[in-house]
């Protein structure tokens, strides 16, 4: 296929790419989305990561071997290749080990999961009867945390149960009846299990609220408050959020006791994600432009975001019909279908994963080279979390947004 030529522009100047004409102008972000969406200035989707600014490397105060945790846990940490903590891990683990309530404010991809799992596993090793609840907004994040937990607890009598909607509840009930120290779940399913008298939160002295701002956005605030009200007081509460709103502050004030606040947030979007737009010319076939991008050699592992479940599924099928290896995840997929698609993506069995915003938060998939916003997100915050799937840790990534 012959490549289309077009010109892209970023604030730093012009450069040639393939398939679009760039430039800055305001764009109404609610086109085709109905009421309630934000109006987003499209220039916010343009940001070069290679600014030439030399940053001083973060100097950790600790090595993982310095933390006051059990030797068996240190062995597993070492086997996972963890040597130097990330900033959030370095600053917050000692406070959690001391039993303090904490509020962690950090960008996506900063290592929050290990920051709370390491000290909480240590708590379980010291008291095998310890019960810990981890509340998260999405099924995918719950599964990911449980996978991390298993990696840290090899050869240990420490077990977790995932309790999420969209998966067979009978298996989760069976898991709750077996030995476990961690329950990791989404608010709706956790509340369901409580109402069935299968989950007894009075036995849990520690709770983690991960991505609390997202749970708030998804309408889980009443479920969160209900469950926290059923837990013992005092308790150990760990609270993580990428943003702090007045409602989040009220939650912190109501449920945490004299918390230590640790913020390692450096900006809205990751500094090592190169962001640009593709401005589609009138009459251009959007899927042709996308196909041309995906067939370029530097587009390795690509996450593509669409607006609707039906649109995502159709796009995935259309790309597959063109010979590309693709998969999809959205709300109409069963849990097993979503897990299979994610597994294939992680193993490079498929090149492109097409998703709705259900995948925008919490997923930690190694080496995603590009995030493509095939449809503009409803809000700028959704944009931030979408593109946070690439450029994780010290890796570089690219984000491209289609503008019609």
Task: Describe what this molecule looks like in 3D.
The protein is α/β, with parallel strands linked by helices and 404 residues long. The chain is 33% helix and 19% strand. It has helices spanning 71-79, 87-97, 112-126, 139-152, 169-177, 187-195, 212-217, 221-229, 246-255, 286-294, 309-321, 335-346, 380-387; strands spanning 5-10, 13-18, 26-27, 40-41, 102-105, 132-135, 160-163, 182-185, 206-209, 236-241, 260-263, 273-279, 302-305, 326-329, 352-355, 370-373, 397-403. A 7-stranded parallel β-sheet has the order 7-8-6-9-10-5-11. Helix 13 links the parallel strand 16 (370-373) and strand 17 (397-403). Residues 1-36 and 51-56 have low confidence and may be disordered.
Tally of DSSP helical segments: 13
Q: Which segments are poorly predicted (pLDDT under 50) over 5 or more consecutive residues?
A: 1-36, 51-56
Mean pLDDT: 84
| Structural class label | alpha/beta
Biggest β-sheet: strands ordered side by side in the sheet: 7-8-6-9-10-5-11
Helix percentage range: 25-40%
Taken as a percent bin, the fraction of beta residues is 15-25%
> Gap between N and C termini, in Å?
23 Å
Largest sheet: 7 strands, parallel
- The backbone outline, from C-alpha atoms, is globular
Task: Give the H and E element order.
Answer: EEEEHHEHEHEHEHEHHEHEEHEHEHEEHE
Rg (C-alpha, Å): 22 Å
Give a count of the beta strands, DSSP E runs of length 2 or more. Answer: 17
């Amino acid at each position: 296929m012959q490549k289309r030529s077009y010109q892209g522009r970023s604030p730093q100047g012009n450069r040639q790419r393939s398939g679009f004409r760039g430039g800055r102008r305001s764009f109404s972000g609610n086109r085709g989305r109905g009421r309630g969406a934000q109006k987003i200035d499209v220039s916010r989707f343009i940001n070069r990561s290679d600014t030439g600014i030399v940053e001083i490397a973060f100097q950790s105060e600790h090595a993982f071997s310095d933390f006051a945790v059990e030797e068996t846990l240190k062995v597993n940490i070492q086997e996972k290749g963890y040597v130097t903590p990330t900033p959030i891990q370095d600053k917050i683990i000692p406070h959690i080990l001391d039993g303090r309530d904490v509020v962690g404010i950090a960008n996506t991809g900063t290592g929050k999961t290990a920051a709370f799992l390491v000290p909480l596993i240590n708590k379980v090793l010291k008291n095998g009867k310890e019960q810990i609840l981890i509340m998260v907004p999405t099924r995918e994040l719950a599964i990911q945390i449980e996978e991390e937990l298993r990696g840290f607890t090899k050869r240990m009598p420490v077990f977790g149960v995932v309790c999420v909607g969209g998966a067979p509840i009978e298996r989760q009930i069976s898991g709750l009846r077996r030995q476990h120290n961690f329950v990791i779940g989404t608010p709706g399913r956790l509340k369901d299990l409580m109402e069935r008298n299968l989950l007894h939160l009075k036995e849990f002295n520690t709770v983690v609220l991960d991505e609390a701002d997202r749970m708030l956005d998804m309408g889980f605030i009443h479920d969160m408050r209900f469950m926290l009200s059923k837990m013992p007081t005092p308790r150990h509460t760990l609270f993580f959020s990428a943003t702090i709103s007045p409602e989040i502050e009220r939650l912190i004030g109501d449920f945490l006791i004299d918390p230590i606040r640790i913020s390692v947030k450096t900006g809205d979007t990751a500094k090592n994600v190169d962001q640009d737009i593709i401005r589609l010319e009138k009459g251009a076939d959007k899927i042709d432009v996308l196909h041309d991008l995906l067939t370029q050699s530097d587009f390795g592992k690509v996450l593509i975001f669409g607006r609707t479940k039906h649109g995502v599924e159709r796009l995935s099928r259309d790309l597959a019909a063109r010979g590309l290896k693709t998969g999809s995840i959205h709300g109409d997929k069963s849990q097993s279908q979503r897990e299979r698609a994610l597994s294939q993506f992680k193993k490079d069995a498929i090149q492109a994963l097409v998703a709705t915003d259900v995948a925008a938060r919490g997923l930690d998939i190694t080496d995603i080279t590009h995030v493509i916003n095939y449809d503009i997100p409803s809000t700028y915050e959704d944009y931030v979390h979408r593109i946070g799937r690439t450029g994780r840790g010290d890796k570089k990534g690219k984000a491209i947004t289609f503008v019609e």
